[in-house]
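[job 0412] stage=complex_fold ligand=PMV status=START
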Amino acid sequence: QKLSSGSVSWQSPSNIALVKYWGKYGEQLPMNSSISFSLKNSHTNTTMFFEPKSSGEFEFKVFLDGKREASFEPKILKFFKRIEKYISFLRDYKFRIETSNSFPHSSGIASSASGMSALALCLVDMEHRLHSDPGGQPSLSEAEMQKASFLARLGSGSACRSLQGPIIVWGEHPEIEGSSNLYGTQYKFQVHEIFHNYQDTILLVDKGEKQVSSSIGHELMHNHPFAKQRFEQAGFNLSKLIPVLKNGDVTEFIKIIESEALSLHAMMMTSMPYFILMKPNTLEILNRIWAFREETGSKVCFTLDAGANVHVLYPEAEKGSVLNFISTELSQFCKNNEFIVDEVGFGAVKK
Ligand code: PMV
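[job 0412] stage=complex_fold status=DONE, emitting structure tokens
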């Protein structure tokens, strides 16, 4: 049985890790558990057009903002080969994958998490249509969402945290029932209201191509002198975060979150070969955030991804004052003074 020509569309958000994933084994399985906020405004929209064909080679083309983007195709081909054993119909259709991001092109915000999540959801949605009765439930079940997260993980590890929201855990953790190395799961414990609409303003310090990719960075955690301690530390930090998310102790939250960001970058600096992804402006911003906190008693803090950009996290009640601080003091350290105002979001939506 085959579907006639048609299309599926999904919008998936980006996510920002609070406890970081850095180091993997096997088929994109994490060496430690991680936890993230799903974002709201930074997302990828993907429409997958499909047309039945006779089985044979994979056939697909990728378009970014309406223009053919052949440079994405080897990555998608690799992804298709990797997931073929879980999605049986990939060779039976010709695909046209149209994708666009809400954030500026090459802003240094990785589109791999939101992009791989949206693509995985399109594929699982197609599978859902293949197997469901006409007139059946159109939305994806919990098991189907789990499968989509599993597939997204095979595209890009942290993408498995970009399907649901507002807080997602990936990687087995003894205190979090149902947590898995295979897919992301919704964080089910109680969360204090201060975190319900937590703000994330992303300062675009450097838009350039990173000198060292995340996949090489993960690789370098094999035989890393501090690997074992780092993986343990991530687990402890997640344990410490559980009561903090519940009681809303933002002072404690800041300590965990900033320490995680700097520990991630410390792993890069102590790899062999070693590397630094922060830029002088990254450090300037971190110092100014610390000074601002000291002077004003603000609860603003930072986190970092594998790059030079800074994610500025703060409670919604401080939005006016922190955005004022960012535009008057911090944006001068961004490329073209650019930053993205975002906040915690609720996950992917079918379009
Ligand atoms: O998903 P990857 O392989 O691009 O790795 C991303 C890892 C970090 O963004 C640095 C941390 C994380 O947990 O998101």
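The pocket of PMV is lined by residues 17, 20-22, 34, 110, 112, 156-158, 214, 218, 264, 305-306 (CB under 6 Å).
[job 0412] exit 0
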